[in-house]
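User: I'm writing a short methods note and want a consistent example. For G921 protein, I'll paste the sequence; you return only the structure tokens, no commentary, since I'll be parsing the reply automatically.
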Amino acid sequence: MVCVGDRIDTDMQEGFLRGHGTQVLDGQLVATECGLVERVNKLVSVRPLRQRYSAALGDIVIGRVTEVAGKRWRLDIGARQEVSLQLSSVDLPGGAQRRRTAEDEIKMRTIFKEGDLLSAEVQSLHADGSIALHTRSAKYGKLTGGDLLYVPAALVKRQKHHFTNLTTMGITMILGCNGMVWLAPTHEGSSAAASSTSAPEQTAAKAPASAAEREAVSKAANAVRLLASLSMNISPASLLNVCKVCAERGVQAKDMLTASFIGAMLEEESQQRLQTSL
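Assistant:
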């Protein structure tokens, strides 16, 4: 991560191409924005930490329905472009596979209505900049009974699995590429394999969450907030590492965002990076 004016190391590269967020001064490459350094072959650029989400095909996103109109839903996913979910791009109740009719259009609010939170996948990017989503899989759909967190999208990297069952904590985690993170108690008896193929509302506990489940979700949520405050990548591994340090030091969920514990996490992270470099 670099700040404005920081020198970007290019000594190990035989020539480089200046990308977005960089400038050459006195023969050295320096950052013109605060963000993360990205290298693609010889191209060096800086991706800002604070910016609107820029969608890519196949991204897993979390959004909130803002409007039901025509044969589509409009969603807010924090993107620069307009986002829509077509009626033809969702699974009908009961998993029926057929053409959508005028009756289905009338009953659209029985599937998703204004204010509903849901997970989806970016299906296509149109020439006018608009984004089309789809939920044609059992793992996508409405999200209920959990906690939604907003973090900079740059801290969430694309990975193999964005739906994760953290069995040691008893919670289900969804990492949205648009910087929205969903945490909910895992339904008793569900497995990691099931959580990656079942709708999130089916994996969430049907009964009201117990005190232990609320404590686990709160601890995971504060771990995500702590990682975001330190501009560290957010992943299941980094979240579990924070919770591990928390357990080792006997820190409760309500004390995870205090200055003393943040300092302890910085010390732990620096030691791990030092050991890795050695």
